[in-house]
């Protein structure tokens, strides 16, 4: 699948809105990779021990510690988000919405993981879902 300018703009808008809502420092860096199923499958197997592809992976650089600062206080590294565009396209079709909406959702999900949100318990899952929908609503991105 070819990455389009529109896809890049969606990712940027989600990251910028999330930074605004959560007060993330202006010089914070997040790496986003828009990948295929094979690539994310390899990462999922290597880092999570799961031999399958997935929709999104997040790798936080601070894991509950102070943010990773490089090159002085002007550059903070938050972490990496990897999104499978192939899985995003399948899920968009399955859920009956656009690829753009699914990409926005997965980007939101990924950045929230970098900010410390998780969904291991039902309470965490509910809180994370509420935060995801809040960011998407602020961007005017709805489920339909």
Summarize this, please?
The protein has 144 residues and is of the alpha+beta class. The chain has a single domain, classed as Metalloproteases ("zincins"), catalytic domain (Collagenase (Catalytic Domain)), CATH 3.40.390.30.
Tell me what you see in this structure:
The chain is α+β, with helices and mostly antiparallel strands and 144 residues long. The chain has a single domain, classed as Collagenase (Catalytic Domain) (3-Layer(aba) Sandwich). Strands 1, 2, 3 and 4 form a 4-stranded mixed β-sheet that branches. A hairpin with a 4-residue loop joins strand 3 and strand 4. The longest helix has 18 residues. The protein is globular, with a radius of gyration of 15 Å. The mean pLDDT is 90.
Level-1 CATH class name: Alpha Beta
Query: Can you count the helices?
Result: 5
Strand content: 15-25%
Anisotropy-based shape? globular
The biggest sheet, with number of strands, parallel, antiparallel or mixed sense and barrel status, is:
4 strands, mixed
CATH-defined architecture: 3-Layer(aba) Sandwich
What value does the Rg take, in angstroms? 15 Å
**Low-confidence residue ranges:** none
How far apart the termini lie comes to 23 Å
Q: Do you know the CATH topology?
A: Collagenase (Catalytic Domain)
The secondary structure category is alpha+beta
Give the quaternary arrangement of the chains: single chain
Q: How many domains make up the 3D coordinates?
A: 1
Global mean pLDDT? 90
- Strand and helix order: HEHEEEHHH
List keywords for this structure.
single chain; alpha+beta; Collagenase (Catalytic Domain); four-stranded mixed sheet; 5 helices; 18% strand; metalloendopeptidase activity
């Amino acid at each position: 699948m070819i990455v389009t300018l529109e896809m890049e703009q969606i990712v940027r808008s989600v990251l910028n809105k999330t930074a605004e809502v959560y007060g993330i420092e202006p010089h914070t860096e997040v790496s986003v990779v828009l990948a295929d199923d094979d690539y994310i499958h390899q990462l999922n197997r290597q880092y999570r021990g799961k031999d399958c592809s997935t929709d999104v992976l997040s790798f936080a650089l601070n894991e509950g510690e102070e943010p990773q600062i490089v090159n002085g206080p002007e550059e903070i590294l938050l972490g990496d988000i990897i999104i499978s565009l192939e899985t995003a396209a399948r899920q968009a079709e399955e859920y009956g919405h656009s690829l753009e909406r699914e990409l926005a959702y997965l980007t939101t999900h990924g950045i929230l993981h970098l900010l410390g949100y998780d969904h291991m318990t039902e309470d965490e899952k509910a809180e994370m879902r509420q935060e995801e929908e809040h960011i998407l609503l602020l961007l005017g991105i709805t489920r339909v």
